[in-house]
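// run 5 | inverse folding | seed 20
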């Protein structure tokens, strides 16, 4: 049996259960170096936003504790990932490197180059499917092309082999003695000012909390999900998105927990379909790696975005537009690092259509403020609302925030929760006229139609 250690490179999979790369390393029988690399330097890797860094700090703390419990240690290193992993191989004399796959363009390039280089050096290198139910390249249309419409995509997934069962956590990991940086030295938490009080109140990062949330949701909330999921005042959705984003919980664990509990009915179907939207966003990103910067539908390049009005953008970011549902959502986001899905759609429509501000500005703000921001779901959904994306809402579907509030927050409970001064003189008048701006947006859209 080889004694040269194995390296397990943790990325968006901060868990010890259902972790195929970790399982393979343990199976190999040698000591295991578990490493996380904070990479803010490799070309094309998008630096994490502020809320994401806050989450990462908690998630790494939780992962460190879980590995401790198995006899191992989490090694933290900072720098360009390829260089860091190479020097770790040299330092430890590792004979094998394992990781779970990533699906973004720059990440795939980096991983592929590293894999080739290590193999050329005679190392064992293996990558695994871990964070998606269906590998993006395995789901294809009858013509062999990627899907651009959700419903047939999901139908094809449902005809593919069922997602595998989750793997158990290892019982024990043989450790190695490798130096680690200190998490505190990474300064992932905000100070001066510490804006994270609301995040701390709203969330507990880590796999233990993720599994608790999953159990609670399946037991208590799933039955009401189909009805309640569109009501921002209710806590009817799973709130699993950041746990899935950071891989504290795998989609396989969610899938099979549902199977095990034999949950049926409209709520269960609807919830599974939402997991399907997550898969679709990654499928689209895999085939269009520039999703965060480039219109998925090229004809939207002809959209005449007017010159940015910075004050309007700031009012939107700070929840001071004078449109109650929009302001409530933006304040919820700032305070807690999340926003209800229905309200995300409304604020995104308001930014891109009523304020005529490029979707990329909104995507960037969400990237910085959401704890669940990921490279696929965020740009995918922004482009979906803006009309430029895959299977997007038609551009002329301009959400009317007042009608949306009447329909989905009929008692005004959600708005009052976040906009305490509603109904008083302190609350501003709307910064734009909804009707006029809607008409202006539709006029601007004529350019796209002409370019199509
Ligand atoms: P639930 O309703 O419980 O859904 C279960 C899971 O399904 C979610 O945790 C999530 O993983 C997945 N899911 C649900 N809806 C979507 C969707 N439309 N697209 C992709 N996955 C979905 N979601 C993110 O995870 N990260 C993002 O960066 C993100 N940005 C968004 C930006 C905009 C403009 C919009 C309109 C939506 C965005 N979403 C994003 C999708 C959705 O709003 C969140 O996934 C959802 O609100 C998370 O709450 P939940 O976990 O309670 O969802």
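// decoded
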């Amino acid at each position: 049996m080889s004694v040269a250690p194995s390296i397990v490179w943790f990325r968006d999979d901060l868990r010890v259960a259902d972790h195929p790369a970790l399982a393979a390393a343990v199976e190999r029988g040698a000591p295991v170096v578990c490493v996380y690399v904070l990479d803010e330097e490799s070309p094309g890797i998008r630096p994490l936003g502020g809320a994401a860094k806050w989450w990462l700090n908690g998630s790494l703390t939780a992962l460190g504790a879980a590995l401790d419990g198995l006899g191992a240690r989490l090694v933290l290193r900072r720098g360009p990932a390829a260089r860091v992993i190479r020097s770790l191989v040299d330092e430890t004399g590792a004979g094998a490197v394992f990781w779970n796959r990533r699906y973004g363009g720059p990440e795939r390039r980096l991983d592929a180059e590293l894999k080739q280089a290590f193999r050329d050096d005679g190392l064992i290198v293996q990558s695994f499917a871990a964070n998606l139910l269906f590998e993006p390249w395995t789901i294809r249309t009858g013509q062999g092309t990627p899907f651009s419409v959700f419903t047939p995509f999901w139908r094809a997934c449902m005809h593919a082999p069922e997602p595998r069962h989750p793997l158990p956590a290892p019982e024990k990991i043989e450790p190695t003695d490798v130096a680690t940086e200190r998490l505190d030295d990474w300064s992932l938490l905000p100070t001066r000012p510490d804006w994270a009080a609301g995040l701390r109140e709203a969330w507990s990062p880590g796999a233990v909390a993720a599994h608790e949330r999953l159990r609670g949701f399946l037991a208590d909330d799933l039955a009401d999900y189909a009805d309640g999921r569109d009501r921002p005042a209710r806590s009817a959705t799973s709130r699993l998105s950041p746990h899935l984003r950071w891989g504290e919980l795998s989609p396989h664990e969610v899938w099979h927990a549902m199977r095990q509990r034999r949950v049926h009915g409209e709520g269960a179907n609807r919830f599974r379909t939402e997991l399907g939207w997550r898969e679709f966003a990654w499928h689209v990103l895999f085939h269009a790696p520039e999703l965060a910067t480039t219109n998925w539908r090229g004809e939207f390049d002809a959209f005449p975005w007017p010159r940015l009005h910075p004050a309007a953008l700031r009012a939107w970011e700070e929840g001071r537009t004078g449109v109650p549902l929009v302001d409530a959502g933006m304040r919820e986001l700032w305070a807690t690092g999340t926003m209800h899905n229905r309200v995300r759609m409304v604020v995104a429509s308001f930014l891109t259509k009523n304020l005529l501000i490029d979707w990329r500005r909104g995507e960037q703000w969400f990237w910085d403020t959401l704890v669940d921001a990921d490279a696929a779901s965020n740009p995918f959904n922004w482009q979906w609302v803006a009309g430029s994306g895959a299977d997007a809402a038609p551009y002329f579907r301009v959400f009317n925030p007042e009608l949306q509030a009447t329909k989905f927050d009929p008692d005004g409970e959600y708005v009052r929760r976040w906009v305490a001064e509603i109904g008083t003189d302190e609350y501003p008048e709307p910064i734009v006229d909804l009707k006029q701006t809607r008409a202006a947006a539709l006029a601007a859209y004529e350019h796209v139609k002409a370019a199509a």
